[in-house]
Amino acid sequence: MFMRRTPLLDTALVVGVARGTARRQYQQQATQQQAQQNAQQLQQSEQARAQEEARYKEEKAAWEKEKAEAKEREERRLWEEEMERKYAERTGHGQGPPAYGEEGHAAAPGAKKFCVECGHAYTIGNKFCPECGIKL
């Protein structure tokens, strides 16, 4: 009826099953290690990208600030020139007094500047505008 297996066949069967199981476990471990390495590489690349993006934003903000300051200086210079021209027209003098001495240094005391509020000329050293009274 039933044929009985031989012990050698049983041993071969057990060894084959054990070897297959061990091979599957090794492959699963290798796959898990590869997945962990991939996750670490992805995390590192995300951190590097975030750092690069933060550095770019800082550089852009610094550039925009510098650009705004340059524009503000230019607008101030143009405004002062306009105030000098208006002063010259009002007083009948040729050219109005310079707001600054040579090379951008402040003019000597007694020189004239112009109020930022009303544009009226005032003497350097005054604390308040003689026309509108704003603090200088």
Question: What is this structure's SSE topology?
Answer:
Layout: H1 7-91, E1 112-114, E2 121-123
Antiparallel strand pairs: 1-2
Task: Explain what this protein looks like in three dimensions.
The chain has 136 residues and is mostly helical. It has a domain at 53-136. It contains 1 helix and 2 strands. It has one helix at 7-91; strands spanning 112-114, 121-123. The protein has a two-stranded antiparallel ribbon with strand order 1-2. A hairpin with a 6-residue loop joins strand 1 and strand 2 (121-123). The longest helix has 85 residues, at 7-91. The protein starts with 6 loop residues before the first helix and ends in a 13-residue tail after the last strand.
Radius of gyration: 42 Å
- Give the spatial strand order of the biggest sheet: 1-2
Largest sheet: 2 strands, antiparallel
Order of helices and strands: HEE
Q: Kindly, what is the distance between the CA atoms of the first and last residues, rounded to a whole number of angstroms?
A: 119 Å
Mean pLDDT equals 81
Q: Which stretches of 5+ consecutive residues score pLDDT under 50?
A: 101-105
Structural class assignment: mainly alpha
Tally of helical segments: 1
Give the % helix: 55-70%
- Could you tell me the number of beta strands? 2
General form: rod-shaped
Question: What percentage of the residues does DSSP assign to strands (E)?
Answer: under 5%
What descriptors fit this protein?
mainly alpha, two-stranded antiparallel sheet
Short description:
The chain has one helix and two strands, in the order αββ. It is mainly alpha-helical and 136 residues long.
